[in-house]
């Protein structure tokens, strides 16, 4: 069963990657940081994006024999998220248990994994809940990273000083990853240098924690803006670029994802740095997530299909994957049982 070996290998790689002192993915390189002139040259051809995507989705699919292993991998890339006004220690603890043991024993067995071998990529909460999440994961004896949103999530509509303080507060409480929101006004008025300066200050406030920059693509109007914001966020040292907060009226879409993946590829070609990608907002079904994974694989390659470089912001998706895996497995069992009669 090669696919099981693949998952096991992936699990080992993921655990090793997390066990190391949370290495930064991106090291800031001054030469490129000063090259904001690049931003002015960026243009996105909307029609070409549409064509490439149609081509991709019509020519690539995950064969049904591979879907279980792809879905197990998707689970490992989920930032299991709760961002609600009534979050409290008990529901955050439930989230932590779910993230630590996302699939039932029966499902992990049938995937050829031990129960404690498969976890989600992280849990993601509001700053005030970071301490609860760290405590919960500690009790559960799992060393998943806690991600915190910050900088006046979801809108970012507050003073920069307060936004930076919020990052520090989350880091002090134990957040290893900070999902910041960009200042949309600066992006929409083309003040890329100011946006860059804010992001550099945020990057510095994150210290050793990773910075995931939410572009809030649903509010950026054009694909060209999405591309420019992606480049500025990467230049400022983001470890990940992320599509949406899940609170905008337009969520992550595949054309936007394609533009962001291309920006990541281009940035890698120019600087050698690998920046991760996190689609978020409205990704609810196994079918959705497989499309995002095909996009990652085809645009950026297998290396980017691990939770080191790929995260999915989601809350309901995990339930759908569980249902899907359970159906698949009962189907496989029943087919196997029927065989001798055939
Ligand atoms: C399915 O898995 C097999 C074995 O791991 C691999 O050779 C093949 O390329 C996979 N197919 C797809 C579409 O991923
Ligand atoms: C966007 O995603 C959020 C979070 O998953 C969801 O509640 C909302 O309904 C989605 N909005 C749209 C327009 O799909």
Task: Give an overview in words.
With 342 residues, this protein is α/β, with parallel strands linked by helices. It has a single domain, classed as Aldolase class I (TIM Barrel, Alpha-Beta Barrel), CATH 3.20.20. The chain is 53% helix and 9% strand. It is built from 15 helices and eight strands. The protein has helices at 2-19, 30-33, 37-41, 46-59, 67-77, 89-100, 105-110, 130-139, 160-172, 184-188, 192-206, 223-235, 254-271, 286-300, 317-338, and strands at residues 78-81, 122-125, 146-150, 177-181, 210-214, 240-242, 276-278, 312-314. It has an eight-stranded parallel sheet with strand order 7-6-5-4-3-2-1-8. Helix 5 (67-77) packs across helix 14 and helix 6 (89-100) crosses helix 8 (130-139). The radius of gyration is 20 Å and the shape is globular. The protein binds 2-acetamido-2-deoxy-beta-D-glucopyranose (2 copies). One 2-acetamido-2-deoxy-beta-D-glucopyranose (NAG) is lined by residues 2-3, 6, 62-63, 66. One 2-acetamido-2-deoxy-beta-D-glucopyranose binds at residues 246, 249, 251, 281-282.
Radius of gyration equals: 20 Å
The strand count comes to 8
Q: What is the CATH class?
A: Alpha Beta
Secondary structure class reads: alpha/beta
SSE order, one letter for each helix or strand = HHHHHEHHEHEHEHHEHEHEHEH
Largest sheet: 8 strands, parallel
User: What fraction, in percent, of the residue positions are helical?
Assistant: 40-55%
Distinct helical segment count: 15
**Gross geometry:** globular
> Per CATH, what is the topology?
TIM Barrel
């Amino acid at each position: 069963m090669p696919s099981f070996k693949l998952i096991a290998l992936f699990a080992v790689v993921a655990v090793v990657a997390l066990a190391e002192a949370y290495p930064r993915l991106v090291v800031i390189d001054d030469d490129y940081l000063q090259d904001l002139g690049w931003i002015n040259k960026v243009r996105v051809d909307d029609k070409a994006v549409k064509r490439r995507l149609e081509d991709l989705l019509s020519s690539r699919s995950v064969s049904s024999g591979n879907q279980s292993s792809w879905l197990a991998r998707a689970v490992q890339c989920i930032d299991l998220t709760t961002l609600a006004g009534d979050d409290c220690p008990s529901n955050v603890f439930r989230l932590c248990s779910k993230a630590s043991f996302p699939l039932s024993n029966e499902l992990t067995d049938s995937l050829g994994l031990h129960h404690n071998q498969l976890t989600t990529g992280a849990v993601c909460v509001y700053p005030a809940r970071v301490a609860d999440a760290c405590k919960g994961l500690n009790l559960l004896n799992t060393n998943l990273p806690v991600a915190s949103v910050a900088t006046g999530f979801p809108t970012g509509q507050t003073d920069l000083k307060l936004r930076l303080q919020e990052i520090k507060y989350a880091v002090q409480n134990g957040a290893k990853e900070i999902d910041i929101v960009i200042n949309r006004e600066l992006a929409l008025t083309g003040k890329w240098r100011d946006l860059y300066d804010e992001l550099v200050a945020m990057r510095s406030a994150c210290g050793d924690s990773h910075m995931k920059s939410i572009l809030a693509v649903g509010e950026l109007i054009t694909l060209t803006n999405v591309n420019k914001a992606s480049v500025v966020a990467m230049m400022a040292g983001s470890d990940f670029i992320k599509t949406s907060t899940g609170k905008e009226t337009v969520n992550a879409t595949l054309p936007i994802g394609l533009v962001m993946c291309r920006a990541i590829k281009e940035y890698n070609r120019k600087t050698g740095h690998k920046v991760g990608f996190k689609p978020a907002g409205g990704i609810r079904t196994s079918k959705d997530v497989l499309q995002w994974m095909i996009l990652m694989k085809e645009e950026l390659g297998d290396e980017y299909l691990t939770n080191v470089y790929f995260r999915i912001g989601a809350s309901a998706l995990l339930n759908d994957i569980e249902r899907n895996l359970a159906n698949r497995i009962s189907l496989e069992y029943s087919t196997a049982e029927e065989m001798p009669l055939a």
